[in-house]
Amino acid sequence: MVTKHQQxxxxxxxxxxxxxxxVRKIARVLHVSEGTAYRAIKDAEREGFxxxxxxxxxxxxxxxxxxxxxxxxxxxxxxxxxxxxxxGREGLHKSLGRLVIGAMKTESISRYLNPGxxxxxxxxxxxxxxxxxxxxxxxxxxxxxxxxxxxxLANEYQLPLISCSYDTFTTATLINRALYDQMxxxxxxxxxxxxxxxxxxxxTPVDTVRDYYHLVEATGHSRVPVVDRNGRLVGIISxxxxxxxxxxxxxxxxxxxxxxxxxxxxxxxxxxxxxxFEGIEMMPVVRDRNLVGVLTRQDVIRALQIMSRQPQVAxxxxxxxxxxxxxxxxxxGQVLLxxxxxxxxxxxxxxxxxxxxxxxxxxxxxxxxxRVRHADMVVENMTLYMLRPVPVDSTIDARAKVLxxxxxxxxxxxxxxxxxxxxxxxLLTAQWIER
Length: 435
Prior knowledge:
The protein is of the alpha+beta class. It is built from 14 helices and 19 strands. The strands form five sheets. Strands 14-15-17-18-19-16 form a six-stranded antiparallel sheet. A five-stranded mixed sheet has the order 4-8-7-6-5, sandwiched between helices. Strands 1-3-2 form a three-stranded antiparallel sheet. A hairpin with a 3-residue loop joins strand 2 (50-53) and strand 3. It holds the Pfam family 4HBT.
């Protein structure tokens, strides 16, 4: 039986791109409550085929594929620049291909215009008309509006005509920053990237322990999801649960209820941390409580291997902090990272902030543990003692030493020093994550 929530999601997917979506309209058309409609629209927004914008409303957009995630839609551009849509609302779902700055002579602009472009320009009406006729959307900066003729062209060609109060340089900077963030997201692997929706071997609560053993023998998987007749996950059954159970007993008496789950939008890094912390080999993947797949430890290891081979195309805050720190040889079995406190790493008072300090400590511990064992780590606990502040432009050393390690856990001590003396110490407990 399909739930009302799923019916609403299917209805939204069936709408044409650019269609306006409202809670009241969906509630009226599908005969559901406004609360149910609202929750379904929010789920559609999280899945990426709906976008909600101030002063515009909710619009059906094209769901981005992983390979094109670095592309923004014009609807997202409106949100980024806090703009107003003057015309061409039907084209808000389209993707931005490239930026063109209208700061050149009019006769030189045409060679840079092509469909999918976004012309960023002030109150130059001739450039605005030329851009729309060439298939490019227009973003008018400086708070200027457009003439009725330009608005008619935007509506005719279904190309967004946007106005914002920022100057051209600030507007281009904001959009480039958003594109840069999208590039970082492209490198992040999610559960949906490694687990495909598939028909799964499952059991129901009324099945017996004997049925469980038959399924294990047929599939080779020892942990089996348990679902109700509507396909919703209600538990997990494993050999430990039925070790002393009679073969004719229903598995509902022995299954683990409310198992640890992930969604398709959970990151692989988060899932691997949860697997290591909980000590489990498999987690069900659910969407709206419906089972859509399973994530195994082998899937996670394979995904981490893929991530390690990907080229780094954009820098995160963590990358910016540690990029200028270099490993210095130390003959006493320790790892030494040396670098400088840059202005971006400081507080408003000009001293090293706790966030960058924690990042440096974790990086030193990671490098140290990689020399002991070729595996990644997940920090479970960190105790930090800050002895005194360190000013900007100071050269600091992070000395890491493994105190103890085993098959699953490791303990690392990190001492941070400047030219004077140690100013911070930390003790980390971490879990290994095999690649």
